[in-house]
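Our consortium's second objective concerns turning raw sequence data into structural hypotheses that experimental partners can test. To show how far this objective has progressed, the report includes one record in full. It was chosen at random from the queue rather than selected for favorable results. The single chain below, 144 residues long, was entered without modification.
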Amino acid sequence: MISPVISFRTAVPSLRIFVTSFQTNLKTFLAPFSSIETDDNIDPTSTARTPPPNSTPEEFRMRALSLYRQLLRSADKMPTPNRRNYIRTKTKAEYEKYKNLDPVKDAEQIEFQLRLADTNLDTVMVQAEHLTRLYNDPDYQNYN
């Protein structure tokens, strides 16, 4: 009987892709914190993070739409209809939930959501590649 365990040759490239993606996302996530001052005498109200000067409402909109399209396109790369539908539904629901944020007042929240969407895109792409390779492996037995 063939074991349903993922073979070593299948797991290593996926793990390498995951680690690379994780390192990239970690650097992106930590970038805003690299300029935080650590002096104890700083007034807490003066340390509020302001959005980068190049983050205009139009740039927020362009980034959000680009990520939205990329997430919907990457959903088509999933090997099963259930996974494709889940990603489409989740993406549409999240974008609908945050579409009314004010780019001036909620710039931090928008930046956070855009970073989260970027991370989700990386995750979906890695999962799609891994699952497609897994389902195409003749030694894999899907017991679902």
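The partners drew two points from this record. Residues 40 and 90 are 42 Å apart (CA to CA). Residues 44-51 have pLDDT under 50 and may be disordered. Both points have been shared with the crystallography group to help prioritize constructs.
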